[in-house]
Fold:
Amino acid sequence: MFPAIPTYNMHLPTALSVLFLISASASAAPPPNLYLSARSGSDGAFRLKLASNTSHCLDDKFASDGTRQVYLRKEHCDEGAGTWAFNTAFPGSLTLFEPSNTYALEPEPGPDGPMEDGRKVRLMQPDRGILGQKWIMDDQGRLSVGDPMSTPKLCLSANEDAQPFEDVHLQVCGSGEEDLNSPMKQKWTLDYKIE
Structure:
């Protein structure tokens, strides 16, 4: 005479599955402290130099189409206060120090998406919502871009033998020690000693 009491045991696996998916989604989000820490102002300026040759550093110039393109400067990297220097305007960003925080490093877009092996990099308006403007430096000095959970990881790479504006691009991240006899380099150092 009383209605049957519903049983929910049959729904338990589904509920657990939902909880598992939520937990997995949360754990897949990159920890914010992985990205380069925000550090702006004059004390936050640094030059991005090759770890194997600190006389070579990242610099930029205006291209014919009006965009700012980066290249590997091979001289005078320690001259000029704030010249060819960067800082970190928001976590993960590599933004120009002068003019202050007006350009951020990101991969050039392409038909197969913004993240691709061999893609050049450029400087665009900073936007903390763009994953391509978020960089992570590992304990080896390699700078990977975008989602740290993605594979393969793509790193900021320089070819010391290439012509300017053809010498800096993304490449699948290597591991271990670099071949000092190879012109391809991926290890960088942040030199905060700006004078």
Residues 5-33 have pLDDT under 50 and may be disordered. The first strand starts at residue 47 and ends at 50.
